[in-house]
Every structure is written in C-alpha cells, then in structure tokens.
Amino acid sequence: MTEMRRVTAICNGSVIDHIPAGAALKVLRMLRISGKSSNPVSLVMNVPSGKYGAKDIIKVEDRELTQEELDRLSIIAPHASVAIIRNYTVAKKRSVEAHNELVNVAKCTFSNCITHGNREPQSHRLTVISVDPLQLRCHYCCRAQDMDAIIDNLL
After folding, report:
1. pLDDT, tens digit, for every residue of 11-58?
2. N or C: which end of the chain has fewer CB within 10 A?
C-alpha cells in the first residue's frame, strides 16, 4: 500500500517534526501562532511514527524559528526537530534540546514567587528536574511547575 503525502511542500519556512501526539495545538499557542496571522500553517496530528508510535507535524511558511523559540519549544516537545526550508530544500536542521536550566523562557507558575515582584526584578530561572516526562522547578521558590499553566507564563 502506498502512503499518500498529507501536506504539500513549502517554499520557505520551518517544519517542526516529532512533536508528541496531540501537543501541536500547544506548540501553536507557544509560538503565538493564531488564525489571524498571514503566514500559512499546516498541521498534521497523530501521524504514524516508527520511533514514537504517533507524532504531530507543523509547517509554518515564511517564518524561521529563532533560538529563543526553540528554547520555548523544549518545554512542550523536548525531542522535536526543526528543519529550516529555503527554496523547497532543507537549508538547516536544528534539534530542540532541553537544557539543565531555562532562563527567561517562562515565569514561575506560583503567583507569590519573588520573580513576580516589580520591586526586586529577578531573571526567570526554571530548573529541569526530568526530561521525560518534563518536570520543571523554580530556582527561587523551589516549587514544581504546573506544565499546563506554563504555556500561559511564557515570556
């Protein structure tokens, strides 16, 4: 049985592959991509994957992801890979890496943390406790982070 291509190739932009199945909508929120932008976005969910069983794929035309966006992406899809497409060919391949600490990527989800105060501005530092599943802890208040709320706290 031949497999049909589900999404057409893009001329320029970014292809985010190996997103955990069902997490693509969170990635779109994290990248601040809504239906109001002029860039075409292709989204494929629950595609068969030999490595992960199922995965999601996002293609964003005419937008190359920055290193800051890759750092944010590591919160949702720590094993994702990003292909930068130029003139229908892969110009660069970048992998998302979960670092030991995320600095100024997201705010602590605990509302009483010192990082939320205006009088003592602190950098936002989240320590990675575990990658799979991803668990983060605030460097200052040592509270475990609510992973569903962390997307709303992205900087």
Report:
1. 999 999 999 898 899 888 888 887 777 788 888 998 888 888 899 999
2. N
Q: Tokens representing 83?
A: 């292909």
pLDDT tens digits along 80-114: 899 999 999 999 998 887 778 888 888 888 988 88
40-48's contacts with Cβ under 8 Å and 24+ in sequence apart are: 40/10, 42/7, 42/8, 42/10, 44/6, 44/7, 45/21, 46/21, 46/22, 47/6
Look at residue 105 and tell me if it is in a domain. yes
Residue 62 falls within a domain, yes or no?
yes
pTM: 0.78
DSSP 13: E
- In the chain, how long is the greatest CA-to-CA distance? 64
What domain range is 110 assigned to? 101-153
